[in-house]
Description:
The chain is an alpha/beta fold. The protein has helices at residues 64-75, 79-82, 140-143, 145-151, 177-192, 213-224, 245-253, 258-261, 263-266, 279-286, 294-303, 309-314, 338-341, 345-351, 354-357, 382-395; strands at 15-17, 38-56, 86-106, 119-124, 155-159, 205-211, 231-235, 255-257, 273-276, 307-308, 328-334, 363-369.
Amino acid sequence: MGPLLYITALALLANISTTLANPIQQEPQSSRPSDSVANCVDYKISLTVTSENLVINTPQWKNDFELIDYLQNSSAKNANVTFHPIGPTTINVTESVSIAATFCSPKTPSASKQDREKTVLITSSGLAYDSRYWDSEYNPSKYSFVEAAVAQGYSVFNYDRLGVGQSQKVSGWTNQASIQVEILASLIQLVRNGNYTGPVGKAKSIVAVGHSFGSQITNVLLTKYPSIVDAAILTGDAYESIPYGGALLEETIEPRIANQLDPKIFGELDTGYLTFVDIYAHVNFFFKAPFYEISAVQYAQSIAQPFALLEFLSTAAYSLKAPEYEGSLFMMAGEFDIPACLGDCVNTFRTQNLTEMFPKSRLIDTYILPGAGHGVNFASNVGEYYGETWGFLKKAGF
Length: 398
C-alpha cells in the first residue's frame, strides 16, 4: 500500500538470527495443472527471529463494537494529535517461526534463455492474501504470476508470510512489519546460497517482487539492506502523501474480527486479526469494474487471509527512501488503485519522484495497468502487466 498512514513511530532497528533446519521437501505439487510448465517443490523453513517491535498502546479489542470504536478514533481528523495506537516504545522479541514456501523452476530449461532459471523471483503477498495471490489455482494460465514467470524461463520462490497460509500463526497483537522484513531478508540469503531452490542450486540473481504490504516490506528491505537483491518489482504501491489517507483506507476495508466473523475457519487466531466484512468490501478495496471477472473475485474471496492491523500500521515507522540501493526498480499499479493512489494512479505516478527515493538505482521503470484496481494479479487484463514485467527484467539484463 502507498505510505498513506500518519502514525508517528520510531524507526525500527531489527536483527535476525537464522537457524537452518533440514528442509522438509515434498513431492512436486500434485495440484498444479497438467499443462503446467513449472516443476515445484514445497518446503517448511525454520527460522529464529529477533526483532525490535513497536508496542501497541490501544487496548486489545474483544469484539467488533470495540474494534469499531478504535476505527472511529483513528479516523478522526485530529487523530494524528490525539490518538497514538503504536509506539514510540519498542520491545525486543525473539521467537522461532516456521515459514511455508514453494520453489518453482522450468520443467525444461531453455538453452536459448542462457540459465535464466538461475534468476529467482522472490514474491511477497500483501495483506489479505497468502502465496496464492501469486499462484492462482483459478484459471492459472491467465492469473498465475508463477506460471507466467516460469514460462519466461525464470524461477520463483513463493512463500506464505508469517501469520497466513501454511506458515506459522502468531498473535495479531505482535505480528508487524519489523518481523516480516527480517524474515524476507533471511529467505533471500538462503535462496542466494542455494538453499530451498530444488534443482537450480545457487541463484545467480535475486529479484524481490511485492504487492501492497509485500511491496512495503520489500521497499524497507532496499533501505536497510541495499545490496541484498539485484532488482525489485513493487506492485500495488506508490509514493504520495494524502491527508487522512490512512483513515480512509481503514474505513474502506470495513474490517471485522476474523475469529468472530467466521470461527470455524479462523478460530485459531486471536482478536488481533481482521478480515473483510463481506465480498463487497473485498471488491471495494481490491477490484474495479469492468476489469474483473466475478468468478475471479469469488476465488479471491475464498482464499482471503486475515491480517493483523499492527502490520498495517507499523509500516509507517520506516523511511522508504533507499539512498544506497543501486539495483533496478519497477513500480506499477492499477489505474484506479485506491490503497496506493486513492483511485488516481495516473496523477500519482506523474508527480511522485522515484529518483529522489532511489537516487542510485541503475534503472527505474513504471507502469500503470489501464482500468485495474489494487489487486492487479486478478485484473482481467493482467497479461498486459505481466508483459511489461518481463520487458523490464530483460531490459535490466535478467
